[in-house]
Structure formats: structure tokens, C-alpha cells
Design brief:
Layout lengths: L14 E5 L1 H5 L1 H17 L2 E4 L17 H12 L4 E4 L7 E5 L6 E6 L2 E6 L13 H17 L8 E4 L20 E6 L3 H13 L3 E6 L17 H5 L4 H12 L4 E4 L7 H4 L8 E4 L6 H6 L5 E8 L3 E7 L7 H4 L33 H17 L11 E5 L5 E5 L14 H8 L13
Parallel strand pairs: 1-2, 1-4, 2-3, 8-9, 8-11, 9-10, 11-12
Antiparallel strand pairs: 5-6, 6-7, 12-13, 13-14, 14-15
Helix pairs in contact: 2-3, 2-4, 4-11, 5-7, 5-11
Protein name: THIF-type NAD/FAD binding fold domain-containing protein
InterPro entries: ThiF_NAD_FAD-bd, Ubiquitin-activating_enz
Organism: Bradyrhizobium macuxiense
Length: about 425
């Protein structure tokens, strides 16, 4: 946090999470409660659950269990020395209230919509189980809490995760009953792990392949909803922690490869069309080069920045801008003379281990935005937003969507469209490709 010019929250200031009873009984309300406990428990060592206990919703992975016990267990697994418990709100607590009413300041999500601000909430009631707006509202609320140091929510903010605009939208599209297909995640750090966490809250109907060579470190715990103190103490490989989580919540088909992407047989030996969507959340070993020279399916990912922003990006096969247009390859890396020759794409560089940083709510925002795009891939009119969407959280929240420009001289200029078309043929979202006829 200090690398962002910020300091941790006052550990003596207790945050108490409360909720409107009707909202808490709904799927959206319980997604909000689970995400709030998970995120705030990584942001502060002093969090109390102030809502009455209830059984976890049938649509969630831990259906039927105690919501309070599950949430407390998660917070204590992150920080065994934290002050976490369940009690009514006390005088002096900062109240983090979930729902459309019940307090003067609200954190409310319904369907794809999110709101923070004074009550009552202006959001329309969406009855379909989505959860994305609920999770987004918690991220916005946590960012406000941290930015203002427990300041009042006097300025409202409304947004939606459907087309990433600052207005609520009535859309009943839900991932319930829709298979996501084969989702490969290259890089299982904060963004990759968080994206898979949010996918699992929405549906377990997907095949997951996880690729990352790295191990869980102490600095990873606060910014991933999956990693725990126990993982860091034994240097557990990140993809193994992720695979265990996904299997435990009910994702039946999970593969984990604890290597860098360019060394992974899951990537290098895959059949044409076998991967439906790639969450490209890695940033080492010239990974963008290896991805683009491997003729990828649609790519979705988000990055975090030092100005407290999260940027979502989408690269569709055949589009004018590939990921190398945005992240040019290392100067030490020699370009191939033929885009269909994979020999030099197996080269790599050795990078020094480094300790990076990210504010917890930024990582949650990045993973959530990525997961939201994956969940919308089957929507009839997808894509619904520009290729790049930036969410700024340093001041009053800001959403901006812009197209991605092509970079002149990029290696994708010589990539063979016919080969790329063949490589993704048969994949679930091949219809989204925009190759010229």
C-alpha cells in the first residue's frame, strides 16, 4: 500500500458490515456479503459481521452452510491475528451497509448495476441471479472507505457492468444455465485468481486450465480472494491453490500447470479450437509475444495502475489491435520472420524476481471486470463496450471506454489470418472474430 503513496487503515478502527434482511436473503445480497467480508478482511485487521446469520443461497458454491461462519473462516485464514467476529454494530464503528435501504449510506448492487451513496438506492430491482453489480458495489465502497479514511458517502455513484457506463440498465441476462466452455488463465496472480473466484460465484459450468510458475508470497495475500496465510507459509504454487479452490466449489474439470506459459503443454500442445477464452493475466517472460504468436482465441484481462485505476482490455481474433500493440515485446526479443514459425516463439528471457504491489480493491476490480466480460460472452449482442474500459478510483469513481489503436510495426501485421482462423475454429466464441473476408 505504501508503494501507492498510501498507508494501511487504522487497525483500531472497526469496520462492521451490516445488511438489509431482504437483500441478504437474495443471491445478489449474499454475493455482496461474501465479497465484502473477503475484501474488507484483507484491507483491515478489524472487521465485524453485524448482520444476522443465514444459510448460504442455493445458487452459491457453499449452499446451506452458515454465511457468518463461512465468512469468518475466510477472514481468519487470511490474517490469523486479526480482530474478526460477529456482533451487533457498536458506537464508533464504521458501518459498511449492504442493500437498497436501512441506513443513510448504502453499498448496493442489483443485477449488473452498482450504487454507493445516500439512501434510498436508485437501482431498479433485477430478480435474475447475476451478482456482478453486487460485487462491483462492494469494490466501489471499499475504495471509498480507503480513499477517504472512513469518510461519509456524500457523493453518489451509479454504474453498470453490462456496457460499463454511469447509468443503471435493466438487463435480465444471467449466466445461470450457460456453459462458459474452456477458460484458460495464463497468470494466476491477483487478477487471474480473482477472475476465477468471481466466475465460480456465478457458475461452476466451465472447464478451467490454470498456468503460472509462481508461488504464493506474503504480498499476494491481501489482493487475491483465494490465497491465504497458510498458502504463503508453505510457498504453495499459485495454480495448485487455485485448482484446489475451484474443485472444492464444484468446478469438475480443472487442470493446473505450474510453469510459465511458453513452457506449458496445456498451451503449446492444445488442439485447434480447444480453448474458448483466454484470461491473459501474466506479465513475465514476454508472455504477450508467446500468446500472440500462438494464434489465441478471444483474450480478456485487466491491469492495475499506480494512479488507482483498473483497465479492462479485450482482444478479438482478427481485430486491429492485439495485446502486443498495447504491450510491445522486450527489445532483447528477436521478432520472427514468419508468423507461422513457432521455433523462436519458444525462446524466453530470465527475469529477476521482483516484489510488486497493488491495492486490494484494485485487484478485486480487475478480476471482477475480467470475469464480467467472460460471463457476457454468450450474450446476443456481445461485445457491449469498447475494447478498453478504465475504472478510476483515486477520486470520485470514473468510468471511461475507448477503442484500442493498432501499433504500426507490430508483429500482428504479418500474422496469417487463415492460420489464425483455423486455430480458433470450433471454439465457442469463434463467431466473435473479425477477420476480413
Amino acid at each position: 500500500m505504501r508503494r501507492y503513496g498510501a498507508s494501511p487503515l487504522d487497525p483500531m478502527q472497526t469496520v462492521t458490515i451490516t445488511a438489509s434482511p431482504d437483500h441478504l436473503a437474495s443471491y445478489d445480497g449474499q454475493v455482496a456479503a461474501l465479497v465484502a467480508c473477503n475484501l474488507l478482511g484483507r484491507l483491515s485487521p478489524s472487521v465485524q459481521i453485524g448482520f444476522h446469520d443465514i444459510a448460504i443461497h442455493p445458487r452459491l458454491p457453499w449452499a446451506g452452510r452458515s454465511l457468518t461462519e463461512h465468512a469468518l473462516g475466510g477472514m481468519r485464514a487470511v490474517d490469523p491475528f486479526g480482530n474478526y467476529g460477529a456482533r451487533p454494530i457498536n458506537t464508533g464503528d464504521f458501518r459498511f451497509h449492504l442493500g437498497p435501504d436501512g441506513h443513510d449510506a448504502l453499498v448496493h448492487g442489483s443485477g449488473w448495476n452498482a450504487y454507493i451513496g445516500q439512501g434510498p438506492s436508485p437501482l431498479p430491482l433485477i430478480t435474475s441471479d447475476v451478482g456482478v453489480g453486487a460485487a462491483l458495489s462492494v469494490v466501489l465502497g471499499a475504495a471509498h472507505l480507503f480513499r477517504t479514511r472512513f469518510g461519509a458517502m456524500t457523493v453518489p455513484f451509479v454504474s453498470n457492468a453490462w456496457d460499463w457506463t454511469n447509468a443503471p440498465i435493466v438487463i435480465n441476462f444471467s449466466p445461470v444455465g450457460i456453459s462458459l466452455g474452456h477458460v484458460m488463465t495464463a497468470g494466476f496472480g491477483s487478477v487471474g485468481s480473482t477472475a476465477n473466484y468471481f466466475l465460480a460465484l456465478a457458475t461452476r459450468d466451465f472447464r478451467a486450465s490454470l498456468i503460472d510458475h509462481d508461488k504464493v508470497r506474503v504480498q499476494n495475500i491481501t489482493r487475491s480472494p483465494i490465497f491465504t496465510d497458510a498458502h504463503a507459509k508453505i510457498d504453495l504454487v499459485k495454480v495448485n491453490a487455485g485448482a484446489t479452490f475451484l474443485r472444492e466449489v464444484g468446478v469438475k474439470d480443472v487442470d493446473a500447470d505450474p510453469v510459465a506459459l511458453h513452457e506449458s503443454s496445456l498451451w503449446n500442445l492444445r488442439d485447434s479450437g480447444s480453448i474458448d477464452v483466454l484470461i491473459s493475466a501474466a506479465n513475465e517472460f514476454n508472455v504477450r509475444y508467446h500468446i500472440e504468436m500462438g494464434f489465441p482465441p478471444i483474450q480478456l484481462y485487466a491491469t492495475t495502475g499506480r494512479n488507482w485505476q483498473t483497465t479492462l482490455m479485450r482482444h478479438t481474433p482478427g481485430a486491429k489491435a492485439c495485446s502486443l500493440c498495447v504491450f510491445p515485446p522486450d527489445a532483447r526479443f528477436a521478432p520472427t520472420t514468419c508468423a507461422t514459425d513457432g521455433s523462436s516463439a519458444r525462446q524466453t528471457t530470465v527475469e529477476e524476481e521482483r516484489t510488486d504491489a497493488a491495492l486490494p480493491f484494485l485487484s478485486f476490480a480487475a478480476g471482477l471486470m475480467t470475469a464480467a466480460e467472460v460471463l457476457k460472452l454468450s450474450a446476443r449482442r456481445y461485445p457491449l463496450s469498447p475494447e478498453r474500459v478504465m475504472l478510476g478510483l483515486k477520486d470520485q469513481p470514473l468510468l471511461i471506454g475507448t477503442p484500442l489503436p493498432h501499433r504500426n510495426g507490430c508483429l500482428c501485421e504479418s500474422r496469417h489470418a487463415g492460420v489464425h482462423r483455423s486455430a480458433i475454429a470450433g471454439s465457442r466464441y469463434a463467431r466473435l472474430a473479425c477477420f476480413e473476408i
